[in-house]
Amino acid sequence: MAVPTAAPPTVAESLTLALIASSDAPLLLLDGDLRVIAASHSFGRAFGIDPAQAPGRPVFDLGDGEWDLPRLRSLLAATAAGNASIDAYEMDLHGDSPRVRRLVIKAQKLQYGDHDVTRLLMTVSDVTDARLAERVKDDLVREKAILLQEVQHRVANSLQIIASVLLQSARNVQSEETRTHLNDAHNRVMSIATVQKQLATSNVGEVALGPYFTQLCASLGASMIRDHEKQSIEVTADKSAVSADVSVSLGLIVTELVINALKHAFPESGEGKITVDYRAQGPNWTLSIGDNGVGMPTEAEPRATPGLGTSIVEALARQLRAHVRISDRKPGTLVSVAHTQIAAVDDAGVARAV
What we know:
The chain has helices spanning 11-22, 41-47, 70-80, 128-172, 176-201, 209-224, 244-264, 308-319, and strands spanning 27-31, 36-39, 86-93, 101-109, 119-126, 206-208, 231-237, 241-243, 272-281, 284-291, 323-328, 333-339, 343-345, 351-353. By secondary structure, the protein is α+β, with helices and mostly antiparallel strands. 23% of the residues are buried.
C-alpha cells in the first residue's frame, strides 16, 4: 500500500515562500498555530537562526527560547484569531549576547481566497541602535540645559557684583552728574541680572511675562524707591509667555520706562504709582507703562532732550516690530509699546499678515 505524500506547493505558494526568503526585512510567515512556515534569510542573519531549520517549529521555540514571552504569545494568538493586530509592539530580546536588543514587532493576518487557512506575516525591526542614539541625544540635551543654567547663574551673579561696584562708586563720587550716570548704569545692570535669573529658573523655552515683570519691577523698586509707602509699582499681565529673546527685549523696555518714571514723574519724592501692563490677543500685543505723576510738559515748559533711555526703548521696539506711543493721562503719562499684525489682502485675494 502506497504511503500518501504531501501535495507539492502550488506556483503561488512557491512564489510566496521565495519572496519571504529573499526579503531584506526580517520576516516570518506563521500558520494558525503560530508555527513557522517560512523565515527570511535576513531574519536568520539578524538573530542567528538557520532559516532552513525554522519551518514547522513554533515561533516561541526559535533560538534558545528567547522568543517565548507571555505578552508576545497573547498578541500573536489574538491576531491569529482575528481579534487584534500588532502595529508596533516593542519588546526586549535577551539572547546569548549580554546586549539586550530592542525590537519592534508588527504582525497581521493575511487576507486571501482560502478563509479556512490562517496565515500571519510577522515583521521584526531592530531599533536598539536608534533607541540608544535617542538616549544619548536626550542625555546631551539635559547636559546642555544644565550647563546653560549654570552659565546663566554665573552671569547673573557677575552682573550683580558689577552693579554693587557701580552703586558703591556712585556713593563715593562728588559730582552729582557722575553719580546720576553711575546710578543709571547700576539700575540697567540689575535689570539684566534679573533677566538672567528668570531665564535660569525657567525650565521651558518660553518665559511667562507676568511673574517675570513682577520680579523685575520688585528689583527696580527695591533699588530706587526710598519710601515704599509713598511710591509703588503695580504689575498686571495676562498669561502670555514669549521666547527668551523677546522677554529680554520686553524686560529692558520695562526697565527703562520704569526708571524714567521713578526719576521724573514724582519730583521731590512725591506720592505716586507706576503701572506695568501686558496684554496679547493672537499675534497682537501691547505693553503699557503708566504713572499718575506730573505728566508731560506743557507747551510753555522746555522739553527735555531725548536721552539714552528713550533711544534704547525706540531701538528695542523696532527690533520687536512694534511702535511707541506716548500720551498724557492727566494726571501722569502713559507709554504704550504695541505690535499689531494686520491681515492684508493681496492681488489674488489671499489674506496675508503684514
